[in-house]
Amino acid sequence: MPPPFASDEDFPELIIHELTQLRAALQGLSTAQAASRPTVSALSLSGLALHSAQVVHGWLLAAERAPEPVAAQEIPQLSARIGFSQMYAGSEDLGHMPVDEVLAQLDRVIDFVRTEGPGLFELSVEIPLGDHRWPGSGPFVTGRWVWQHLATEVARHAGHADILRESIDGASAAELTATEG
Fold first, then answer.
1. According to DSSP H, which parts of the chain are helical?
2. Distance (Å, rounded) from C-alpha 111 to C-alpha 30?
């Protein structure tokens, strides 16, 4: 169950909760299982976890740097600072990446959110989007929008992870979360 959301200061804990849901979906799987695509989707559990972690890290750094924009060519370098070796969309073939490495990367981002997230930027900060405009947005989004976007995107991917995990071995989110927590 997500943590109580009483104020804007709870955004980091909400993101950590959703990333932990993704982490739970990977528990007990082999590298091959975590990298498998057990449905018609091109997504794997490893890919979803790495993509979600990278998105969280990238958006938080972009908000921290505001009002300076983050150029697209800078994103791989920023991601490398926390251990990402490439950019992840979720559909890459990750059969070569041990599931423990995926979990370690996810843990680094969870630790980043826990230690750096609170107070990293003001909710009212305007983050320039440059050429990466979000549908319906203007030239910038706010810090509040970033937290809200991350909460919804990571929760959506945690739901995807539930379906993928159930397709692999029938394990449910409820039982996986109970063993993770």
1. 11-26, 31-35, 45-65, 75-80, 99-116, 143-169, 173-180
2. 24
Residue 140, beta-bridge partner list: 128
Q: Would you write out the chain's pLDDT as a tens digit for each of its 181 residues?
A: 666 776 778 899 999 999 999 999 999 999 999 999 999 999 999 999 999 999 999 999 989 999 888 888 888 888 888 888 888 888 889 999 999 999 999 999 999 999 999 988 999 999 988 766 667 778 889 999 999 999 999 999 999 999 999 999 999 877 888 776 5
What is the pTM assigned to this prediction?
A: 0.91
Cα(30)–Cα(26) distance, rounded to whole angstroms?
Answer: 9
3-state secondary structure of 74: helix
Sign of the CA dihedral running 104, 107, 112, 115: negative
Instruction: Kindly state the tokens that stand for 42.
Output: 């091109």
First to last CA, the chain: 11
